[in-house]
Amino acid sequence: MTRARQDRLLSLLMRDGRWATAAALADVLGVTPRSIRSYVTALNARTGGGTAVESGPLGYRAGPDAAAALRAGPAADAGTPRDRLHTLVRALLGSADGIDVFETAEALHVSPATLEADLARVRGLLGGTELTLERSASIARLRGTEMAQRRLLSRLAHDEMDAGSFDLEALRRTLGEGSVGAQAFGPFKADLAAELSALGYYVNEYGIGDVVMHIAIAADRITRDRAMDRPAGEMPAAHGQVAELLDRLARTHLGVQLGAGDQQHLAALVLTRVVAPGAPAADDARTRLDPRVESAVRTVVERAASEFLVDIAHEGFILRLALHVQNLLHRSHAQAWSRNPLTRSLKSTYPMIFEVAVFIASELHESLGIPIVDDEIAYIAMHVGGRLERSRREDSLLTATIVCPGYYELHELLRSSVDRSLGQAIEVVGVETRVDPDWSAIDTDLILTTIDPPAPGDRIVRIQPFLTDSDVDRVQAAAARIRRGRRLHRLRAELEGYFDSSAFVRGLDPAAGEAGVIRQLGGLLVRQGVIDDDYVERAIERERLSSTAFTDALAVPHAMAMTATRTQIAIGIADPSIPWGEGRVQVVAFVAFSEADREAFQTVFEQFVEVFSERESVQRIVRRATDFTAFLDELVAVIDG
């Protein structure tokens, strides 16, 4: 657990990139500031004289050797309970006849009693794996299918890796330093991606690392005479080309020949996790689609578009998503989920898009029986986000007026430069060429001027007649400030109507769990007549689908159906933080949405989450929100900046 918390601390610092106090980090991890200091010492010790975490008057931040520390090899973990557990599992998986407990304890330099405790942890690890740990006198052995044993190895590799990213060092630690072709997996991956592209496939780089991990496991198992059994029936025609490619690359790079069982298994993984057909015509795409899948996806997408007022009900989007869901069905049958290293960032940065993806995943679970896991929801969110990005309305651009006194075609050249460099951020709707324009009559979002205005203003940006890179940076920064200011202004106006002093709790019980906290906060809104008990239970069901901890400090539990009599938010403050999902939070905002306020859904989600994505803002609100009035004052102050 200590190693996991150290890694979590370092991941937080690397993702944030800013200074953070020991107290703030302790709140996020649910430990004491003293523990944070000891974690920093341990992290720096991993680098052998380097700096994983910098210390200073402002606290801590990620150092130049942070990535190296996060991927530190066995020397950093040697002798730890996690290291022994993984070593023990590898030994059990590597020996069909089992291991001698006393000999293994001696090899690991621990007592037999310690090893017995480790074996008990192995039994805990085997839950849901279709594997059992048998014991006969001093011999312990694993029993189960080869597929189940490989899944366990995959689980160990994922445990070694950070956020599902492809990490060769972690893969070598899982398989053992003597695993076959360890140095060759980098070139193998590059050649596999190149040849799949040459065959006309789009390659999913987020999924290919996971498949290469399975290929590494297969190669290692084959060298131990643990190949997959030959499958019953003929290999599907679509798999044959990919199977031949994998076998050829395995022989070239790894010196291993794949049998028929491994060829079919790995080809199926590639075709369902790594590739998508290259730009098919709509009719061609449908020939590869199960009509039941297409129909289910079409129904769910149309329902999501109506529920969330998002523009996703387009034919091309439905077909692409249906192809993805069909692959997802194949993965679910094999319990071979595809990891997504962007899951956490997608959830925290685009909570509204992620919420739409959760809705789609939930509906597909009902209609097709697909289990829901966060990494797979994140892939659906990437499809949704891609569609919304394509359909983004042009009126989201800020308008601008250029003030440039006329001299030959100078103003025309400047407008051309602005359009070329800033056309995706602003739209120039007017050009003033007078040296004394009526500044008060200019009503655009921005004023880009080559002359000094009579008075400075937030929307006025001084630029040069010949646009420079620094001018572009200043205009982009001003546009970002205006957009953020408008969003937060709307948020403030809406949020003030959603809070009530009777729906505020300070001091949430960490032992209550997510369901207990949801019932506590939901009960406050039930007593107000805003929702009923069924809404609270549906909010708990939604929480079980995917954690609503959208940032490292904020959870926003809610039901997906908007059945409240009015939109209302119950706030709970936790100081210190409480466990929520896989992390910890300090603020829980139970949101009851009404059908009449459907359009407020996106505002509340994305912009409310944005406020609580900044650690300093969270700490300010948590520390000072001693009662409801203080909470609202601090929230408004943070929004106003």
Strand and helix layout:
Blueprint: H1 2-16, H2 22-29, H3 33-45, E1 53-56, E2 59-62, H4 66-70, H5 74-77, H6 81-94, E3 99-100, H7 101-107, H8 112-125, E4 132-136, E5 139-143, H9 146-160, H10 168-175, H11 185-198, E6 201-203, H12 205-223, H13 237-254, H14 260-274, E7 275-277, H15 282-287, H16 291-308, H17 315-333, H18 343-349, H19 351-368, H20 374-390, E8 398-403, H21 410-422, E9 426-432, E10 446-449, E11 460-462, H22 469-495, E12 504-506, H23 513-527, H24 533-545, E13 554-555, E14 563-580, E15 583-594, H25 600-611, H26 615-624, H27 628-640
Helix pairs in contact: 1-3, 2-3, 6-8, 7-8, 9-10, 9-12, 11-12, 11-13, 12-14, 13-14, 14-17, 16-17, 16-19, 17-20, 18-19, 19-20, 22-25, 23-24, 26-27
- Total strands: the figure is 15
How much of the residues is beta strand, in percent?
5-15%
Largest sheet: 4 strands, parallel
Strand order of the largest sheet: 9-8-10-11
Structural class: alpha/beta
Query: How helix-rich are the residues, as a percent range?
Result: 55-70%
Shape: globular
Stretches where pLDDT is under 50 for at least 5 consecutive residues are none
Features:
641 residues; alpha/beta; Arc Repressor Mutant, subunit A; PTS-regulatory domain, PRD; 5 domains; four-stranded parallel sheet; 56% helix; 13% strand
